[in-house]
Amino acid sequence: MFYLIRHGTADYTEKDTKIYQGFGNHLAPLSAKGIREIETTAADPRLAQARLILSSPYTRALQSAAILSRCLQIPLQVETDLHEWLADQTYVYLPDEQAAQHYNEFQACNGLYPPGEEKAWESLPAMRLRMIRVFQRYQGQDDLLVVCHGLVIQSLCGFHPGNGEIVEFDLDSCMNDQNTKRKQRTKQNEQI
Fold first, then answer.
1. Based on the structure, what is the number of domains in the chain?
2. What phi and psi, each to the nearest 5 degrees, are found at residue 71?
3. How far is CA 188 from CA 53, 76, 143, 192, in A?
4. Distance spanning both ends of the chain, measured CA to CA
5. pTM for the whole thing?
6. Which of 45, 72, 89, 183 has the smallest number of Cβ neighbours within 10 A?
7. For 159-172, b where at least 16 C-beta lie within 10 A, e where not — what string?
């Protein structure tokens, strides 16, 4: 079982100052509220059996993972592919206005490219695939904690969790569901 945990609330008070412009926003630490959220999360009994924490490299997730690691006394490992949604799949950091435009388009399209179109932004299925590839490397290990981002968790579970929220995710069930859907599509295509 994977326990997906959304990072705590970040402190963006230094936005547009120092190094916190554009990509620098990912360097913003947790707020005092975010720290309390994750300390509360650490007390959840579902996490007691975990032996490893996987974390996004972004500061708000990594700081959340560090708090969990300290509270639960288990190691943490950074997995770079657990990063946040990409406004541009080429990993180019866009000006805030353009990134906001991509995000608004992502939301308007419910995270899916319109039929026959490709977009610069990362789709929900692409995020889901990125996450599953990470999880497959850890398949067979029990009760792993994965500290990442709301949109990333949404790509797997269909809803956007709150800060510090724990979402249980079973990779085997997910893979079985995907195989069933793939078989159904193939059967429908054969009937056409």
1. 1
2. -65, -40
3. 41, 44, 37, 7
4. 39
5. 0.86
6. 45
7. eebebbebbebebe
Residue 94 included in any domain? no
Q: Along the 192 residues of the chain, how does pLDDT read in single tens digits?
A: 999 999 999 988 876 566 555 555 677 889 999 999 999 999 999 999 999 999 999 999 999 999 999 999 999 999 999 999 999 999 888 888 898 899 999 999 999 999 999 999 999 999 999 999 999 999 888 899 999 999 999 999 999 999 999 999 999 887 766 544 545 444 555 555
Rg of the chain in Å (alpha carbons):
18
Q: What does the angle CA 64 – CA 66 – CA 69 come to, to the nearest 5 degrees? A: 115
Comparing CA positions, the residue from 78, 59, 81, 65 lying closest to residue 12 is 59
Q: Is residue 16 part of a domain?
A: yes
Whether residue 163 lies inside any domain: the answer is yes
